[in-house]
């Protein structure tokens, strides 16, 4: 199971980011957090996150 890099709470294995919504919004603000999630989701769909595996 994946864990948040900040608070260590459990995350879904399918999560494209390594932090929970609460910590992400606290660290980056809601607008930037939403942009990060969107960009990471698009990168996953393109297969960009699988490089080097």
Protein described:
By secondary structure, this protein is mainly α. It has helices at residues 21-28, 30-46, and strands at 2-3, 10-11. A two-stranded antiparallel ribbon has the order 1-2. A hairpin with a 6-residue loop joins β1 and β2. α1 packs across α2. The chain is flat and about 30 Å long. The relative contact order is 0.15. The model has no long low-confidence stretch (mean pLDDT 92).
Weakly predicted, low-confidence segments: none
Would you tell me the structural class of the helices and strands?
Answer: mainly alpha
Helix tally?
2
- Give average pLDDT, whole number: 92
Kindly, what is the distance between the CA atoms of the first and last residues, rounded to a whole number of angstroms? Answer: 19 Å
Judging from the principal axes of the Cα atoms, what is the shape? flat
Give the % helix: 40-55%
> Secondary-structure element sequence?
EEHH
Strand order of the largest sheet: 1-2
Largest sheet: 2 strands, antiparallel
């Amino acid at each position: 199971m994946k864990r948040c890099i900040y608070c260590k709470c459990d995350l879904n294995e399918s999560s494209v980011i390594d932090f929970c919504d609460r910590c992400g919004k606290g660290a980056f603000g809601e607008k930037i957090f939403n942009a990060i999630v969107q960009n990471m989701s698009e990168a996953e769909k393109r297969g960009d996150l699988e490089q080097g595996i």
